[in-house]
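Re: [help] complex structure
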Amino acid sequence: VIVWVARLEDPGRWAGVLGPDERAAAGRFRRPADASRYVAGRGILRTVLGRRLGQPPAALRFRYGPKEQPILDGHRCAFSVAHCGDLALIAIAPGGRVGVDLERIRDGIDVEAVAGEFFPAAARRALARVAPARRARAFFRAWVRHEALVKATGRGLVFPADARPEGGHGLWVRPLRLDPEYAAAVAGDGPRPCVRLRRFEPGAEAPAPSSAWWGGWGRSDTRRSPP
Amino acid sequence: MTRDDVLTVVRKHVLAALDDLAPEAFDPAKSMKDLGANSLDIVEVVSRSMRELRVKVPRSELSKLSNINELVDLLHESAGARPVTA
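Output below.
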């Protein structure tokens, strides 16, 4: 599994490679910053997949699973995307299943409420054994492991109805060491997890910035915002 | 408890989770993802709302929701079904 680390910046660079459905999805965000990150994320995803498959980013076609997860039409390649703020992770596997998740570690989250409602029993018990001073960090690490597994199973992005203890589903999960401010994990299947982190750098295949479409989106969003 | 009471609680927790979302941009016809929430934001909003409203909703029901109005309806129905306690 290769995990690309990317900054979600310069959306105008990527707008030209998106499909009509992705442009429509970008238009649904209420905050311009979210739309910008979505556009950059999709552009970078298309670029990474296009490099791997030897195709132009704009030529790739996605269809969507029952939980709206994108699936690449006509290829066995598995992928998963996570972003937090302007940092994104894209995990790609040659086949099988893969899931990745990323969160910035922060104070103020209601650890007991969220874990009590949404963690599998084993993860709840493990978290309860952690000293209170370290519990928030442990929570985020457990959360990203859980989310990476849930994404890899394809059962749902938020609320797994029958979340099993970690290690179920025949999947492995590994933490990713990026930055002390972030928790990240990747999950997949196969007998021997082999995970490589790579920093994404845009190349010549990315169109030049300042596409007309991107400018048009900005005006459209302004028009939709309440006065 | 009226539906508007439930909506007020959910709105408060959405705005708390998405602290750079302008209050007038809150639109219950949208999904939380469309408002910029990630998975953890969403479970935090749901957890805090359930705790404040003192209701429990099965995860299998939550997974069917597609926008904030549907969450409000589900929480409102659950609150109405809750036995009244002294």
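The CA atoms of residues 46 and 65 of chain B lie 12 Å apart.
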